[in-house]
Specification:
This protein is α+β, with helices and mostly antiparallel strands. The protein is about 35% helix and about 30% strand.
């Protein structure tokens, strides 16, 4: 697998290029027994935008880093999609579900870095 941080950076770059809102990176490496090293969380403006963001990340990471997700979830509902790259888990929400689940607060023991502040 590619360097974990390369995947994180490519995911963030792709989300920014595709106008994702409220991009946040959470470094979970200091949390003992955590199942992954990073979360990248963002939201889109519609089901179509969420699906487009998810597709763009999957395509760009595959094209540039030759990595595919180990698992993908929510691809048909387009309210909350998840791409699991092992050490990097990408969550793309609609705003309402993101506000409801508040993953940034739930994983508050991690190091939270706001990439863009359009929450």
């Amino acid at each position: 697998m590619q360097n974990t941080e390369e995947i994180v950076n490519k995911v963030i770059e792709t989300l920014e290029d595709n106008k994702a809102h409220g991009i946040v990176k959470i470094d979970l490496r200091r949390i003992e027994n955590c199942f992954c090293s990073f979360f990248v969380i963002c939201h889109g403006t519609s089901g179509t935008h969420i699906a487009g963001l998810t597709d763009a990340v999957e395509e760009k990471v595959k094209e540039d880093l030759h990595e595919t997700p180990l698992h993908a979830e929510g691809m048909h509902a387009s309210r909350w999609t998840v791409l699991d790259y092992g050490d990097v888990v990408v969550h793309v929400f609609d705003k309402e579900l993101r506000d409801f689940y508040q993953l940034e607060d739930f994983w508050g023991d991690g190091i939270v870095e706001t990439i863009n502040d359009e929450r």
